[in-house]
Amino acid sequence: MFTLFMISIITFTISYVVMTLATLLSKKTIMDREKNSPYECGFDPKGSARLPFSLRFFLIAVIFLIFDVEITLLLPIASTLNLTNIFSWFFTSLVFLIILLLGLYYEWSQSALEWS
């Protein structure tokens, strides 16, 4: 128990020293407005909060999330190829990809209508 406690203390001490040194040695300029403002959703964070939201940014974020989830669902399908019947594997993968492509086409067609 004492060894675990000492390892924890040493780890926290080293982390604190490294973070303090990084803060003291960094060359941050306070006057640079562009580097200090976070870019989160396509508008100036120091401006009014009542400005209309950029629909283009929202759609790009949604498409990114769709493809991110798609990858996490497709990787297990590829790893189960050796464990299942090839016909059921192919049929399941094909149905999944068709559903994803139809969703992507629908999202793209809706965004194209709103942008024009």
TrEMBL record:
One of its GO terms (molecular function) is NADH dehydrogenase (ubiquinone) activity. It is an enzyme of class 7 (translocase). Signal peptide: none annotated. Its main location: membrane. GO terms for cellular component: mitochondrial membrane; NADH dehydrogenase complex. Its EC number is 7.1.1.2. Keywords: Electron transport, Membrane, Mitochondrion, NAD, Respiratory chain, Translocase, Transmembrane, Transmembrane helix, Transport, Ubiquinone. It is found in: Membrane; Mitochondrion membrane. Core subunit of the mitochondrial membrane respiratory chain NADH dehydrogenase (Complex I) which catalyzes electron transfer from NADH through the respiratory chain, using ubiquinone as an electron acceptor. Essential for the catalytic activity of complex I. Belongs to the complex I subunit 3 family. This is NADH-ubiquinone oxidoreductase chain 3. It comes from Gaetice depressus. The gene is ND3.
